[in-house]
Design a protein that fits this description.
The protein is of the alpha+beta class. It folds into 2 domains: 3-166, no CATH class; 174-316. The protein contains 13 helices and 8 strands. The protein has a 6-stranded antiparallel β-sheet with strand order 3-4-5-1-6-7. A hairpin with an 8-residue loop joins strand 3 and strand 4. The longest helix has 25 residues, at 194-218. The N and C termini lie far apart (70 Å). The mean pLDDT is 90.
């Protein structure tokens, strides 16, 4: 390999897995191509587009396999700063309507980018997503992973560009709000990490409440009274709950949003003071109130539902219950299947001998 034809990069492998296609681009390997590893692995290593994320003269690259690529300049050679930029970008896309889970530090790798726009994953990332992307690019994916290449979901580059521009415009109105906090709150919600989700979401709510407080209370034109501005900025006197109450009385926060915020605040306080667990219902209250607050600011207080589609996108990605409601499928619902080797006790085990440890044999209860 002639390294003069390559430049070093930092690569983030993200969830959910989906392809990023150029206009009218096709991906249609047959089930036999998938099983025989005859799919186009080269295309999975190709870039699909670049996105201007404010690091000119550089950009973030987006691979056909959905990976995000940053140049390995000094700033992004540090895993933490690269992680921050990746998740900031995904947080902006989230508000624009495209959901992706927050990148984990273990899913960031180093790699190489050819001058013709093809990337190679090298080392550094040993997380499950990094391993999956490395495996499908090298045709080393196992049977349970490689099937994800059969009719995978996809996005077109125009969808990503439009979502990023929309999200960026929204954040310009949400002064001081962190896209990374929002993304982590949503990702933890989707993965049913209710407590972690509430912590991130509540922090975002406090950021918005502070933004509203400064704009509509502290900076409100009043008689020039010495010390008033400092007094209003004092968090010891004007706690978040007090600020929420005042904003509600000023009709800057509507009744439904106020109710949802207080339900989330009470649960958060119960957790902080006595370790009481957080439910999915409470986490959703917090997430809904956050999106209503953001909608109010972005719409100049004309709508609480401006971001409802983005909220719906998050909620629909929530992982299912441990025990699914549906336990069987009809033959027309299954297109392909893989046999599972039998275990002792299965009907198709037969009369083959197997090891029995008496200490582990279950006994009936009285």
């Amino acid at each position: 390999m002639n390294n003069r034809n390559h430049v070093p990069i930092v690569i983030a492998s993200v969830l959910p897995f989906r392809l990023v296609k150029r206009e009218n681009e096709l991906w249609a390997p047959s089930i036999n191509d998938i099983n025989d590893r005859n799919y186009d692995y080269v295309k999975l290593s190709r870039l699909s587009t670049f996105l201007d994320v404010g690091i000119r003269p550089f950009s973030i690259g987006i691979g056909f396999d959905g990976s995000l690529i940053l140049p390995a300049i000094d700033e992004f050679r540090n895993r933490d700063t690269a992680l921050e930029k990746f998740n900031e970008t995904l947080g902006i896309l989230l508000l624009g309507g495209i959901y992706t889970e927050a990148v984990l530090p273990v899913d960031i790798s180093i790699g190489l980018l050819t001058l013709d726009g093809y990337t190679k994953l090298l080392g550094g990332g040993d997380g499950p997503n990094a391993k999956f992307h490395r495996a499908i690019r090298t045709k080393h994916a196992g049977a349970l992973d490689v099937i994800l290449l059969f009719n995978p979901p996809s996005l077109e580059i125009a969808e990503i560009s439009d979502a990023y521009e929309k999200g960026k415009q929204f954040y310009q109105k949400l002064k001081g709000i962190s896209p990374v906090l929002l993304l982590n709150g949503a990702s933890n919600y989707v993965n049913r990490h209710w407590t972690e989700s509430l912590i991130f979401i509540w922090t975002s709510i406090e950021q918005i409440v502070n933004c509203l407080w400064v704009d509509h209370i502290v900076n409100q034109k009043q008689a020039n009274i010495a010390g008033r501005s400092t007094f209003l900025k004092d968090f010891r006197t004007w706690t978040t709950s007090t600020r929420i109450e005042v904003l509600f009385q000023r009709e800057l926060i509507d009744t439904e949003t106020y109710k949802l915020i207080n339900l989330a605040r009470k649960a958060r306080n119960d957790f902080i003071h006595n370790g009481k667990g957080i439910s999915g219902e409470v986490s959703l209250y917090a997430l809904s109130s956050l999106f209503r607050l953001m909608s109010l600011i972005i719409s100049d207080f004309k709508s609480t539902n401006l971001l409802q589609n983005s909220l719906n996108t998050i909620v629909k990605h929530e992982k299912g219950d441990l025990i699914p409601n549906k336990s069987s499928f009809s033959t027309n619902e299954v297109s392909h299947w893989l046999p599972i080797p039998p275990l002792p006790g299965d009907p198709n085990w037969g009369d083959k001998e197997y090891e029995i440890i008496e200490d582990l044999v279950l006994q009936p209860l009285d």
